[in-house]
Amino acid sequence: PQVFEREIIVQAYEFCKANGIKATDDSMMVEQMGVRVKVIEGSYENIKITTPEDLAFAEYILESGRI
Predict the structure, then answer these.
(1) In a structure prediction context, what are the per-residue pLDDT tens digits for the chain, which is 67 residues long?
(2) Hey, which end of the chain has fewer CB within 10 Å, N or C?
(3) What angle do CA 35, 44, 60 make, to 5 degrees?
(4) DSSP string spanning 5-18?
């Protein structure tokens, strides 16, 4: 997932709109303002639940007591 301070992401949306910049994601918009974006290693257990299989995996993680 992408995470930004609220002020930065709001400014990025406003900047891109005002300058007619089209971006594919939030990181690209922030970079257009000259703000450096960095990648931080996360956990494989930090999943996005979009399918029944994802939900089953999330239930497994919770039931296992790993988090």
Answers:
(1) 789 999 999 999 999 999 999 999 999 999 999 999 999 988 888 889 999 999 999 999 999 987 7
(2) N
(3) 140
(4) -HHHHHHHHHHHHH
Domain ranges (residues) in the chain: 6-64
The set of residues, in sequence order, having a beta carbon less than 8 Å from that of 4 and lying 6+ positions away, is 12, 26, 30
Q: Is 4 helix (H, G, I), strand (E, B) or coil?
A: coil
CA atoms of 8 and 49, how far apart (whole Å): 27
C-alpha to C-alpha distance for 56 and 49, rounded to whole angstroms = 9
d(CA 15, CA 29): 8
pTM of the model: 0.66
